[in-house]
Structure formats: C-alpha cells, structure tokens
Amino acid sequence: xxxxxxxxxxxxxxxxxxxxxxxxxxxxxxxxxxxxxxxxxxxxxxxxxxxxxxxxxxxxxxxxxxxxxxxxxxxxxxxxxxxxxxxxxxxxxxxxxxxxxxxxxxxxxxxxxxxxxxxxxxxxxxxxxxxxxxxxxxxxxxxxxxxxxxxxxxxxxxxxxxxxxxxxxxxxxxxxxxxxxxxxxxxxxxxxxxxxxxxxxxxxxxxxxxxxxxxxxxxxxxxxxxxxxxxxxxxxxxxxxxxxxxxxxxxxxxxxxxxxxxxxxxx
Length: 267
Hints:
By secondary structure, the chain is α/β, with parallel strands linked by helices. It has 7 helices and 14 strands. The chain has helices at 14-23, 37-43, 49-60, 70-83, 97-113, 118-135, 251-266, and strands at 137-138, 149-150, 156-158, 163-164, 169-170, 175-177, 189-190, 195-196, 201-203, 207-208, 213-214, 219-220, 230-233, 236-240. Strands 2-5-8-11-13-14 form a 6-stranded mixed sheet. The relative contact order is 0.11.
C-alpha cells in the first residue's frame, strides 16, 4: 500500500496507482514501456521506480504469469477449493462440474506457463474445452487470480486480456471485456475480493478497486477506484459503502494464514 497525500490514514492501493498512471497526462514511459522515474516524482508517492513498474506490469497483464511453479499450482487449487466452500478433497465423479472446470483451468495455466509437455497441454486444453461447452463458460487461462469461485453454471464470457485479482466470486450471465477494440489497454482490470452479481456487464479501459460488489444487471463502463463499496445501475454508480468482506470467502487470506500459523508452530 502507498501513502495517500490527501489522506495519510487511507493509503492508495496498487489499483489506484495503476489508475493514476493511466489517466495522468504527465505520465512518461520509456521506450520499453516502463514507467519513467519522472512519473514516480510527479506522483510524489515515496516509492521507487522498480516497485511502480512491478505494479504497472502486473495490472497491465503484459508480464503477468499467474502460476509460475508447482507450488503456485497447488496454492491455486487449494484456494479455489476453499472459495467454493467444499470440504471434499476432490470433485465427485457425477457432480461438482464447476469445480472440475476450475481444476482443469488451473492445470492448463500450469502446463502452459511452465512450458510442460506439449501432449499434456493438448489433453488438458481439450478437457477444458469440453467442460467449457458443457457449462457455458468462455473463460481463458491466466485471467483470474487464486480463490476463484463460480457460483453457477450458465453463460459467462471473459476476454483473454481482462485481469481479475484474487478471491473473485462471479455469477452467471456476466460479461467482461470490450468488443470495440483489441488493443491491450481497452480491457478492464479488476482488483481482489470482488463480487460480480448475475448479468453484470463490465466494459472498457476501466479499473475496479478491491472489495467492490458489482450489483446484478449493472453496466459498468467507468472506473471505480474507491475500494470496499457497492456499485449498481445502468450505467453503474456507487450505491452504498457495503464491502464484499462479509459476503463471501477470502480464500487466499485463509490459506496464507494457515501457512503462517504452521510456520510459527514449527519455530
């Protein structure tokens, strides 16, 4: 988190920093796309150029590889299981199709990002395709962070350049992307712990901050950088200060706490 010069008690999140970079006309980028040191000085955030560039590249998705190792893969699998609120270790044979889809999605991400065997990648992609058709999902790899929870089967359409953070709880009928352009900057970036209710449409070069609840049937075509609020309407606007914190499971927080507690017991 970064200090907010307007309110020291309410620091900027990395999403807000991203938004400032994208909207500030005085932002300068180097030839390789990195943010120049002048930008850091102009924002007066007290952070280094390297830190800002890490956040920038993550939120733009240009260098984002969500699962980079076997350890990451196992973390994502367990976080998704917790988010789906199941006590079982593995999906049942004749049910749990959404869980099977999410496990297969993570497997494809792991095999692709870690450059594993080509035959294994093809087999996993074929299985993912079959499950996608069965459930009505168009969800590409490397879009959602750990702790994804898909509430129901039904049409969900996400563009491959959309980036969604951890612990997203998403319902049926949701569409996220922008049909007007294929340029990278034209697609939404969504923070952590966001709940997207049925038939919401999120479109354009926008940012959705952490902890936001997107109401049912909403059309979101502008950025909301204030975290922990509820938005709804067509077009969407802020309707309350109610956060997603008590509305769904924050699986990655639970999993990291378990690891920390286990490490402390070992010490």
